[in-house]
């Protein structure tokens, strides 16, 4: 049935120009009904927006591959993310990407946690998947919303930051200096301790990046160049080292091995990064500005640097000075107060 007159004299249009796209509407005159039918047929033939699209049956792994080809290749850690995403898609059973919903995600997260996957790792996996959907939606590769939009990451217990004391610094540098067959780690470690640089940033230093008494780091995580002043003695030491041993090589492995020979014990995952924490911690404890520290470390936001704020000597001391109990002797019990009065009276009688 295309056009049919109803009992009340009106004209009803019921047309399906293409399978899955049906139009129904009622008009007062037959001419209006005919024009509407012709418009529907013409639009469905000439305008793809009027025609129903086939359902997107691509698997999650296919979306991951598209994300990598269209966007991931431009990221510094794109290959690493790609590998994690492929493994994540496989562990979820590689479902049809469009069918992934909150229940699917929650079930996968529960399985990972039950198999002792760390909470941070779970958050990273789901965060990377969310980025895949959002990026492909931006590029119009998919036409449905990201199913991770309302998903909240697991709230993790914050761990205290580990840093080296001065005796530990001396012990570590002495152990590195004793490794004569591998001279690079000792100098790279000194650069990290003097500037708060990441190991890869210090290891990638080249002669042209020494400008006066400042070291310029260009291969940074934030993609921004930053310059950090250092003692002239360190610059002299670096130049002499390069003249004798050549440019730095990839020596993080040697550093980790030497660290194991010392009495220093660090939380998991904090080998070379403890040098960066050590610089920041000693800087704040010595009275350095948190804003200055942000620029030295190259953090994108001040919130990242605020992790070290509690190490400042005057951190939150206003809680005592300005609190409602300031100036009151409210921490003594009645018995202690009476005892204090008795001792005072006895002293006066004597």
Short description:
With 350 residues, the chain is mainly alpha-helical. Helix content is 49%, strand content 8%. The strands form two sheets. It has a three-stranded antiparallel β-sheet, with helices on one face. Strands 4-5-6 form a three-stranded antiparallel β-sheet, with no helix packed on it.
Order of helices and strands: EEEHHHHHHHHEEEHHHHHHH
In round numbers, the mean pLDDT is 85
Kindly, what is the distance between the CA atoms of the first and last residues, rounded to a whole number of angstroms? 119 Å
Class of secondary structure makeup: mainly alpha
How many discrete domains?
A: 3
Give the tally of β-strands: 6
- Give the biggest sheet: 3 strands, antiparallel
Classified by CATH, the class of the largest domain is Mainly Alpha
Helical proportion, percent range:
40-55%
Provide the gyration radius in Å. Answer: 34 Å
Shape: elongated
Q: Can you identify the CATH superfamily of the largest domain?
A: Intergrase catalytic core
Proportion of strand residues: 5-15%
Pfam families: Int_N, Phage_integrase
Organism: Azotobacter beijerinckii
Protein name: Site-specific recombinase XerD
Domain Tyr recombinase: 159-321
What does this 3D model show about the protein?
With 350 residues, this protein is mainly alpha-helical. The chain has three domains: 44 residues, no CATH class; 79 residues; 146 residues, hpI Integrase, Chain A (Orthogonal Bundle), CATH 1.10.443.10. The chain is built from 15 helices and six strands. It has a three-stranded antiparallel sheet with strand order 1-2-3, with helices on one face. Strands 4-5-6 form a three-stranded antiparallel sheet, with no helix packed on it. Strand 4 and strand 5 form a beta hairpin. This is Site-specific recombinase XerD.
